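Posting here for the record, re: D-xylitol-5-phosphate.
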Amino acid sequence: MAELSASILAADLLNLEREISLAVKSGIKWVHLDVMDGHFVPNLTMGIPFGIAIRRKFNVDIESHMMVDNPDKYLDKYCSFSKIVTIHYEAPVQTIRVLREIESRGSMPGLSINPKTQVSRIEGLLPYTKYVLVMTVEPGFSGQSMIEEAADKISLLKEYRERMGMNFLIGVDGGIKKDNITRIHSLGPDIIVSASAIFSGNIEENVKSLKNCMKEDQDGQRDC
Ligand code: DX5
Ligand code: ZN
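Prediction output follows.
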């Protein structure tokens, strides 16, 4: 089964410790940190101090999703607490150089593609990448509806991975909820990111039912 990664973008920031505790208690092992600079995307969010504080307190793996123009700035800091540091194909940087720098600092280099970016565009970058994050919403905000066709890239990436004999992980991020997670999971990603479907309402119940909806067998008891 894929890992469910909790994006704290939709968490109650004034109760962050409590909210992450509840998620961890429900079996969450990955925290997704959405880093936005107000320029690459039209929103400004969290960064280094959040990552450090979370890593210090919780036994979770952190994936830092860098939605910024300069993901190579402060890489030492991000790599110090992140198992994965994901940069965007669309960011105006020398992608291969930054992916290599992430790897040389001991984190897994991740590459994310926006909904409109085709997989063929990143083919040449895959040898430098240990994680490909497929965006199924335009990056910037949580709580948006999924762009369904974008998820088809998961199957395509699996084909590339097999054909090229590679072993990068595949993640999917944006608009994933109880009513579409069964289909998304059946496409075979390794990591499924969710913010609003975890952090609105009862966190423990949300995690439990999302995980339940990821299972293949329909038991008729679920409202997926
Ligand atoms: C969007 C972020 C996502 C977002 C997902 O720019 O990269 O990680 O938090 O939020 P939901 O799950 O609410 O669509
Ligand atoms: Zn994200």
